[in-house]
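To: structure desk
From: M.T.
Subject: fold request, one chain
Message: Could you run this one when you get a chance? Sequence is below, nothing fancy, just the single chain.
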Amino acid sequence: MEIDALLDELIEREGGYVNHRADRGGPTRFGISEAVARAHGYGGAMAELPVGEARAIYRRLYWLRPKFDQVARRSARVAAELFDTGVNMGPAVAATFLQRALTALNRGGADFGDLVPDGRIGATTLAALDRFLEVRGHASGETVLMRALEALQGERYLRLAERRPANEAFLYGWLANRVGTR
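Reply: Done. Structure tokens follow.
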């Protein structure tokens, strides 16, 4: 799936302007928090954030910067999952999930060395992904890797709700709309 299609889906899912009292991120539009919009240079009212600006922010901060575009060259499904997770939890968290999953699936280092879960996708992480898909077969390896990523994501959502009861307001939607949707 191309980034433009992912952006279309994301903008649709995130919806328009929201200012939920339980959301620590404050006002959002199309899922872009006010802090992220301001850091990207947007100075207007959040309720008026243009969709083009939201798309540009997502493309730069949540696709290109974390190198999910390079993951997409290897596995569009995995890249789409990382993008969606990164939008909701932060790109470094999504990248860490990938690194943790690949390390846990490397058969004790028989297929490739353990990765440092540093939240940055670089040559070592991409080489490990390439090797994993080669050894396990692209289709079956991709499916198993997706399950591992979704398990990590679901566990984190539960933990967020357990640690901060106000997050329970979001838990159902996170699980319904974010985990296992790819």
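Reply (cont.): The first helix runs from residue 3 to 14. Let me know if you need anything else for the meeting.
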